[in-house]
C-alpha cells in the first residue's frame, strides 16, 4: 500500500487547488456562525484550503445587517449587486434555503464561480464539530504529556527512552542537566553519550553486554542488573539498572525504557548492618574459640616446644616439630586478633592535637621506611581544630594505613598524609601511588578476615573502621587500579561546649 504524506492528502481533499476560495454568501442561515468560525479560525487550516468571506447579499433583517457591518463584511440587497462589486468571488454559498434561489443562482453564475447550497453546509457543520473535538483531544493530550513529563522530570533516577538500536529517543531532565548538555543534542545519540555518574563523570563508554537493555532486547521482558562504578575521585558507587520493554499497538516491542538508580547509600547501610551482624556472629564464635580451642592449642604448643628442645629428635623430625610450633604461634596470633577485634575497644574520647599525632606517626614510620625509597609527607591546613579520640588508637590506625601504603608500592613511592576540615569533620587522608584496587576489592576491603595478602589476617582496615566509628567518625576509601589508593578518616572535632560525664554504673 502506498503511503501519502499529510501534504499529499491535503491536496487530494481539495483537488490540488492552490488558490484561496473567495466567498460570497447569499442569505443568512443558522449555519452562518459556524461558517464564519471555519473561515476565520486557523485551527481549520489543517482540513480545508484558505477561505475568505468578502460579501453577503439578500439579507432582509436589519439586525443581521448591523451584525455583519460590525464584522466588517459588506452586505448587498441582491446577489447580482454583490457579484458586480466583487468580481473576485469564485465561490457562492446559498443559505436562504429556497429552491428557487438556488436554481436562479445556478443559471446566473458563470462556470468560473462554484456554487454550494445550504444543504451542503451541513458537511461544514460536521467538519466544524469534528475539528473542535480534535482540538479538545489535542489539548487534553498536550496537558497529559506535560503532566507526565513533569512527573518523570521529578523522578531522581536517570530515565532513558531508547529505540532498539540503543539510540536515545527521550530522557528526563536529571540526565541532561547532570551531563550539562542540552536535551536536543542528546536525542538520537547512543545512551553512553548521555549517561553520567553522580559527579558528572562518564557512566560507560560502550554498549555493555551485561546491560539489561540487551537482555530485554532478546527476552522482550523486564530485566535488571546490579553494577558498580568508580567515579572520577575513585569512590565506589552502586547502581541498579532496569530495562522495560515498550510495545506498540500491534504488540511488537518498539522501544526500551532504561532506568539507572543510584543505590550507593542504601547499599552502604545494608553492608554496615551486615557487618554488624557478622561481628555479632564472630563475637559468639570467639567465646567458643577462647574456651574450646585455646586451651588445647596451648597444650599442643607446650608439648611441641618440649619436643623441639629434646635431644632425641633427628634433624628431619626437628623440622616437623618446628613447623608445629610456628603454626601454633600463628593460630594463637590469629585467635588473639579475632578476640581483640570483636571485643569493645572502650577507646577514650579526649581532645587531641591531630596534627601532632599524625606528624608523630609519620616520623616514626619514616625511620624505618625512609631509607627504602619511601617518602612520607604531612600536609595540613591551618588552623585546624582538635579532635575527640584516643591517641594510641588513632596512632595505630595511621601506622597501619602507612604500612598498607608501603605494601601497595613494593618499589617505593610517595605517601601523603593530608589534614583538612570538611563539612564540620576533621578529615585525614592517607594517599599512596601504588597498585590501587579494583571494584571487587573495594567492595570487600572492610570485611573482617578479607585480605589480598597471602599472610594477612584481614583485620587491618576492618579494625581501623571499627575504631573510627566507635569515636563517632567514619571511613571512606577511594581507589583505581594503577592510580593508587586514598583512605579518608572523618573524625569528630572537639567543640567549645561543656561535657558532663555520665556515670553508667548507676
From TrEMBL:
Residues 144-190 form the PAS domain. It comes from Maridesulfovibrio ferrireducens. Keywords: ATP-binding, Kinase, Nucleotide-binding, Phosphoprotein, Transferase, Two-component regulatory system. Residues 288-495 form the Histidine kinase domain. It comes from the Bacteria. The lineage of its organism: Bacteria, Pseudomonadati, Thermodesulfobacteriota, Desulfovibrionia, Desulfovibrionales. Pfam families: HATPase_c, HisKA, PAS_9. One of its GO terms (molecular function) is phosphorelay sensor kinase activity. This is histidine kinase. Its EC number is 2.7.13.3. It catalyses: ATP + protein L-histidine = ADP + protein N-phospho-L-histidine. The keyword Nucleotidyltransferase does not apply. Residues 221-275 form the PAC domain.
